[in-house]
Specification:
Elements (H helix, E strand, L loop, with lengths): L1 H24 L4 H21 L15 H20 L9 E5 L5 E5 H25 L9 H5 L1
Antiparallel strand pairs: 1-2
């Protein structure tokens, strides 16, 4: 649990850094903002599933703006912080049943879902940084080691 909690501390830190960079850059690249919204929407969907609730009405992809992103960051931070505080090491192997956005049923361990969410966000934050660089904007480092230092 210590490693998973640390991964989520990093996730929160990295999301905040990306938001701040996008706000300061005042980018008009809607695709970059939509990609950030996707990360945050996916986090919301997964924490909803982890809590045993229906996520079928929540978007995975949506057009958004930075105000929506800021709101999602706050909500996701609160939800994951509460969820992880209530989660014990032995809970990590619990199987979670859920339907994906296409309605197909799956089962995955809580451990695998939590790991997926952390890695999914980092993958897309890398894409965002690539887009920023292509737009002539200095990307923000969200590497784990920088967070850990």
């Amino acid at each position: 649990m210590k490693t998973i909690r640390k991964m989520y501390d990093h996730l929160i830190w990295a999301n905040r850094r990306i938001l701040e960079t996008l706000q300061n850059a005042e980018t008009d690249n809607q695709r970059t903002i939509d990609l950030f919204c996707h990360i945050l929407n996916a986090e919301r969907v997964w924490v909803t599933r982890l809590r045993g609730m229906d996520s079928s009405q929540l978007p995975i992809w949506s057009e958004g703006d930075l105000a929506i992103c800021a709101q999602l960051i706050k909500q996701n931070e609160e939800n994951f912080t509460t969820f992880l505080a209530d989660t014990e090491e032995m809970d990590l192997d619990k199987i979670i049943s859920y339907a994906n956005s296409a309605g197909k049923q799956f089962e995955s361990s809580m451990r695998d879902i939590l790991t997926h969410v952390a890695l999914h966000g980092q993958y897309h934050r890398g894409q965002i940084n690539s887009r920023l660089r292509a737009d002539g904007i200095e990307p923000v480092s969200v590497d784990y080691i920088i967070f850990a230092r």
